[in-house]
UniProtKB/TrEMBL annotation:
Residues 15-73 form the HTH tetR-type domain. This is TetR/AcrR family transcriptional regulator. Gene3D superfamilies: Tetracycline Repressor, domain 2. The keyword ATP-binding does not apply. It comes from Nocardioides marmorisolisilvae. Keywords: DNA-binding, Transcription, Transcription regulation.
Length: 246
């Protein structure tokens, strides 16, 4: 059994200060302020050089914020999935997708910082906790429904090579015969992310967003490839319940 050592006083002080930095940056973001090193330092009553000990550049600051927010989002998604019956992975995945959408619509600026940041160098290296949650839910869904998984031999060689060594963290089961699940995950994520992004930034009729028409249509389109077409009616009912509750 591995025993985790408690952090030293110095380590704990750093953890606490980094938490304060993230909190200050998120407050600035929520208030519409510019999230810069100087602005965060001013918010905390620190000098800019003092802040540099924790975030030496704007890129490091954004990465720090990204890790914190993504971890929080992952927790919300996982909790939403866990609120559904343990023997119903379809409902768990649906609940996770709805929770991601609801969080994004309620936290547009944070969504933009993490999921729509054009300066991808800031965030591309952190381990996406939310992505791990979705990949785990997809594996659980496959174990229950055994929907077809793309065989690497049937894909373009270049694509197959990428799927064998994905650059983002995924569930450990997504290898070997199940490496094609990485492609299923990527395609599904692109549709979920694309739909939510359009909704968040108001690039579709607001009435479609208010009633969830576009979102529910996107989910329906995913039912057949994920083996869920026979259960679509009940899953659409679940989406409706979750949207009302949210």
């Amino acid at each position: 059994m591995t025993v985790t050592e408690a952090p030293t006083t110095r380590q704990q002080n750093r953890i606490d200060t980094e938490a304060r930095i993230v909190s200050a940056a998120r407050s600035l973001l929520a208030d519409g302020g510019e999230v810069t090193l100087r602005a965060v330092a001013r918010e905390l009553g620190l000098t800019a050089p003092a802040l540099y000990r924790y975030a030496a550049s704007h890129e490091e600051l954004v990465r720090m914020i990204a890790i914190a927010i993504d971890g929080e989002v992952a927790g919300k998604i996982a909790a939403a999935a866990a609120a559904q019956p343990a023997d119903d992975p379809a409902a768990q995945l649906i609940a996770a997708c709805v929770e991601f959408r609801q969080w994004a619509l309620g936290n547009r600026k944070e969504f933009a910082l993490i999921f729509a940041n054009v300066d991808v160098e800031c965030i591309k290296e952190y381990d996406g906790s939310s992505g791990m949650v979705f990949s785990g839910l997809l594996v659980a869904l496959w174990e229950a429904y055994r929907f077809p998984v793309p065989a690497l031999a049937d894909l373009e060689p270049g694509l197959a090579a990428i799927l064998e060594v994905p650059d983002a963290p995924v569930d450990p089961a997504m290898k070997g015969d199940l490496a094609g699940l990485v492609w299923t995950l990527t395609q599904g994520w692109s549709r979920l992310y694309g739909t939510v992004t359009l909704e968040v930034f108001g690039h579709v009729d607001a009435r479609l967003v208010e009633e969830g028409y576009l979102f529910r249509s996107m989910i329906a389109d995913q039912a057949e490839p994920l083996g869920l077409k026979p259960e679509l009616d009940r899953l659409q009912d679940l989406i409706g319940q979750l949207l009302v509750a949210g």
